[in-house]
Design brief:
- The complex is a heterodimer of chains A (572) and B (184).
- Chain A contains 19 helices and 17 strands.
- With 572 residues, chain A is an alpha+beta fold.
- Chain A has 3 domains: 156 residues, NADH:ubiquinone oxidoreductase Nqo5 subunit (Beta Polymerase, domain 2); 100 residues, Enolase-like, domain 1; 280 residues, Cytochrome-c3 Hydrogenase, chain B (Orthogonal Bundle).
- Chain A is globular.
- Chain A starts with 13 loop residues before the first helix and ends with a helix.
- About 4% of the residues of chain A have low confidence.
- Helices cover 30% and strands 18% of the residues of chain B.
- At the A-B interface, α9 and α10 of A face α1 of B.
Chain lengths: 572, 184
């Protein structure tokens, strides 16, 4: 990891910053164009990419959001890689694009400089076969270990209906990489009840203290983006996008439709913008209350768990009345929303916000005054600010480390420009700070819902969509409950999309968990892991391997949770 | 704390659901039902359905179009209800659909196909679609309507033949023997 001396550009406007970047990158790029108003793309030869990213990362409040690979061999016989860098204080996304020739797709790795590229590079290596020179971690990220090295499923010529290997030969065992000598290994996972994706952690412990951690995830990776590229039309994709995540599905649908609206230049009606904001805030409250309940449950504070889930139930009933479903609201469509908020539903919404506010204030006081909860979370799982910047963390995790970023305010979408709200920021970076950020945000969301209900403008629900232009690209960004959710869309021919890249917030927030775990006790691992809200260790079983003898001991979920709870009772 | 529980005690969120019947809110997006009397078999629902729960098949041998909904695939988004031009699909708030047999989850509407008035073969559209198009024709000016009515009841092949025949005839009748402008 390289520590950058960061230049402060927080107070500068967008035009000024674009001018500075132009001067800074002079001679390194060959062409510059802006497909949409908040995305500027620089084309550069591949040798210069590392230097360009290094120079962009010397500005303050920049982070590498996502690296989008694309198979453009039908247009120009090249692969492309687009490094999308977010400038959070200027409402700007800079894309740096390099074309890699078909016969030699090779580029220099930047994962040692910017940690956020670590997973992105491994993913592009798996799916497109792009070779990153200097990437130390050459394990597979997305595909299983036994997948053949020459089959890359996201190349457009990859046969979708032919098996890539002979399954009758049997599958090789999973072999952990980077195993330490003289250390006990504790495997957590891969099955988690409340996570989007099952994750397997290997914790290397010395006694009770975690000294290193390894990650293996993507067991449930199913190539949802390829399905959308292959057969769905523009208006069918919001529904599959909503099913990417069970907790924050609406943010994915909104992100996707915003990208399409951005590339087609569609202005959506005011009422649709407000209803989108309303549903996004309802989803945020629902997600945060779920997380609070789970965190209390891990720490052995089941009263908090029950109460927060009781409050959550009010918001679920409200969502059911407003959209027709408790989750997967199905409200988004390209150009607007599908269902109106009318008369008695407005009254019901006001009523439930009042109830939630009363109950939640009690719960909040109960939680922050609970000495066990505070002792178990204060100073635990500290994420240093430099590490957070390098990993490009987003959302409550970033705000708990003192990074004042919030997509709702920095890249305004839906109705957030016309609403007033505070962004809670703490600077400790421990689990307590993350918890407090989430707890405070619920109050802000309740305020926002009341503001939206008061200021809901009239008018139509959806704009007239005349058609989607071909071969244009855009990004759509939404602040999910867990952070920035970014969708890159490139439109293709015949009313289909050519490339769709979804980067959920957990994709940025899970890699630094590796650093957060080190140095803390095994009993703290569940809460540290849960603090970034990917999920927590509600797994079916844990596997303890004694490295010396190779003997295995099954440690059940209840045992590890009991371990965590025992620590709570000792503190209390 | 006691006051808190006293006040919030009334706000019950749990139900004794399987033991007592649960009344879902009327807004619930539940089972979509096709009214076979109103369906014209246009297939707009099948086009819009994101998970392909609704499909349209045409059987030229037996002479019917089949709109088939399989609730096992349905995601209850309600797009079919939105796009249906006839209002034949209704969203109910039925959600208890568990059944021991998969066949209970399939509902089909079979509609008669139109036969071409020239060659007598089945066309790809249903009688009801023709009827619907016929009622729409009243909005069109009389001269234009005559021309459309001639071709409306034909199958796709016959329509093409009649059209090219007309076009050729109009060329032949050119007074100066030159290739005249095509009628389209």
């Amino acid at each position: 990891m390289v520590d950058f001396w960061r230049r402060n550009i927080e107070d500068l406007g967008r035009e000024e910053v674009v001018g500075i970047i132009d001067r800074e990158l002079h001679g390194l790029y060959t062409e510059k164009y802006g497909p949409t108003k908040d995305l500027i793309i620089y084309l550069a030869p591949r040798e210069n990419i590392r230097e360009i990213i290094r120079r962009l990362m010397t500005f303050s409040y920049t982070r590498l959001s996502v690296i989008v690979g694309n198979d453009e061999r039908y247009f120009r016989r090249d692969f492309s890689l687009t490094y999308i860098v977010a400038f959070d204080k200027q409402n700007l996304y800079i894309g740096v694009r390099a074309y890699l020739p078909e016969h030699d797709p090779e580029i220099q790795s930047i994962a040692d400089m910017v940690k956020a590229a670590w997973w992105n590079e491994r993913e592009n290596r798996d799916l497109y076969g792009i070779e990153f020179v200097g990437l130390k971690d050459k394990r597979k990220l997305v595909l299983p270990e036994y997948w053949p090295d020459d089959a890359h499923p996201w190349r457009k010529d990859h046969p979708y209906n032919k098996p890539v290997m002979d399954w009758r030969e049997g599958l090789p065992d999973y072999k952990p990489v980077g195993r330490h000598e003289d250390l006990d290994v504790i495997g957590m996972g891969p099955y988690h009840m409340i996570n989007d994706e099952p994750i397997h952690w290997r914790l290397y412990v010395k006694g009770e203290i975690i000294v290193d951690a390894e990650h293996r995830g993507f067991h449930n990776w199913r190539g949802i983006e390829k399905i959308a590229e292959g057969r769905l039309t523009y208006n069918q994709i919001p529904f599959i996008a909503e099913r990417i995540c069970g907790i924050c599905g609406f943010t994915h649908a909104t992100s996707y439709v915003q990208a399409i609206e951005s590339l087609a230049g569609i202005d959506i009606p005011d009422r649709a913008r407000y209803i989108r904001s309303l549903m996004l805030e309802i989803e945020r409250i629902e997600s945060h209350l779920l997380w609070v309940g789970i965190a209390c449950h891990i720490l052995g504070f089941d009263t908090g768990f029950m109460l927060s889930w009781k409050i959550r139930e009010h918001i679920m009933h409200l969502a059911e009345i407003l959209t027709g479903n408790r989750k997967t609201y199905g409200m988004d469509i390209v150009g607007g929303v599908r269902r109106d908020v009318l008369g008695d539903r407005l009254a019901k919404a006001r009523d439930s916000v009042k109830k939630i506010r009363y109950e939640y204030r009690e719960l909040y006081n109960m939680l922050v005054n609970n000495s066990i909860l505070v002792k178990r979370t204060r100073g635990v799982g500290v994420l240093p600010r430099d590490t957070a910047i390098s990993y490009g963390v987003v959302g409550p995790v970033a705000r708990a480390t003192g990074l004042d970023i919030d997509v709702r305010r920095d890249h305004p979408y839906a109705a957030y420009k016309e609403l007033s709200f505070d962004v809670p920021v703490y600077s400790e970076g421990d689990v307590l700070a993350i918890t407090l950020v989430r707890l405070d945000e619920v109050f802000e969301s309740l305020d926002l819902i009341e503001q939206i209900l008061d200021a809901l403008p009239g008018g139509p629900l959806a704009a007239d969509v005349k058609g989607i232009p071909e071969n244009k690209e855009a990004v759509g960004v939404v602040e999910a409950p867990r952070g920035e959710d970014i969708h890159y869309v490139r439109s293709g021919l015949y009313n289909k999309i050519q490339r769709w890249r979804v980067r959920a917030p957990s994709y940025a927030n899970i890699p630094p968990v590796k650093e957060m775990l080190i140095g803390y006790r095994l009993a703290d691992a569940p809460i540290i892991y849960a603090s970034v809200d990917p999920c927590l260790a509600c797994t079916e079983r844990y596997l303890v391997i004694d490295v010396d003898t190779g003997s295995k001991k099954i440690m059940t979920d209840d045992e590890l949770r009991a371990k965590s709870r025992k620590l709570s009772s000792r503190i209390g | 704390m006691a006051k808190y529980f006293e006040k919030t005690d009334k706000w019950v969120v749990t139900f004794r659901y399987p033991l007592e019947p649960l009344e879902p809110p009327r807004e619930l997006r539940g089972k979509p039902e096709i009214n076979p009397d109103l369906c014209i078999g246009c297939g707009a629902c099948a086009e819009a359905c994101p998970p392909n729960a609704i499909t349209k098949e045409i059987d030229y041998r037996e002479g019917y179009a089949r709109i088939r909904i399989f609730y096992g695939r349905c995601i209850y988004c309600g797009r079919c209800w939105e796009v249906c031009p006839e209002g034949a699909i209704v969203l109910t708030n039925i959600f208890e659909m568990a059944t021991p047999s998969k066949d209970d989850l399939i509902y089909e509407v079979n509609l008669e196909l139109h036969t071409c008035s020239r060659c007598g073969r089945y066309t790809e559209f249903t009688e009801r679609q023709i009827h619907r198009a016929y009622t729409l024709l009243t909005r069109i000016p009389r001269e234009r309507r005559k021309e459309l009515l001639d071709r409306m009841f034909l199958c796709r092949d016959c329509r093409r033949q009649v059209f090219s025949h007309d076009a050729l005839r109009s060329r032949r009748t050119d007074k100066y023997g030159r290739a005249s402008q095509t009628p389209f």
